[in-house]
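Q: Hi! First time doing this. I have a protein sequence and I read that you can turn it into a structure. Is that right? Here it is:
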Amino acid sequence: MTPPLTAGELPVGEEKTRRVREMFDTIAPRYEVVNRIVTFGLDGLWRRRAVRSLGLPPRSLVLDIASGTGDLCIESTRQGLVAVGLDLSYGMLAAGPPDTPRIQCDAEALPIPTASADGVVSGYGLRNFTDLQGCLDEMARVLRPGGRVALLEVCEPEGTVYRAGFSLWFNKVVPLIGGMLSDADAYRYLPKSVAYLPDAAELRAMLVAAGFSGVNRHLLNGGLSQLYTATRAGGAP
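A: Yes, that's right. Below is the predicted 3D structure, encoded as structure tokens:
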């Protein structure tokens, strides 16, 4: 049996892919419950903002990459879009809404035709991708010219006091809650996984290199989360 991911481990390459898949399979049954508690329900507001930022007309096709249990798929449907969920973890997909199309795959090799989607969303998945640039390249490939992307990720708030409080919550309290309600090793790993995430300037450059233009970064609720939006180059924004 594979040892669980622990606080001090940051696997890379194929080992990261395998172990992250196992971790999310393990926490899938209580994933939504823990999310609501540790974000005080704000994650729902952030997901609504992400889908709305796409600015797409009704019935547009949106791919939710690293969809987890499908919250962004559900929100996309609420806003009149057609959503498809894609995730590495079968356990996450199985816990999602049964009426939403779901595909198990690696984000580095999406089984989606080129230029076939109108929008791409992803919620808190960037730091879990083994090859982040390769995944951003794939997002650009499957989007039509002028298609839109919205990427949510964790962030560190601005301001000394606010940042200190967030650090205490994210690094100490969240793992405690996660351990009580789900899997302790997985939620001890969560704060450490932020080390995989590039800083704002580097991530912006990676999006441009993938073929996106008009890259914008929005801080949500004082920087508790961040939202990147961009347009697939080659079409009207």
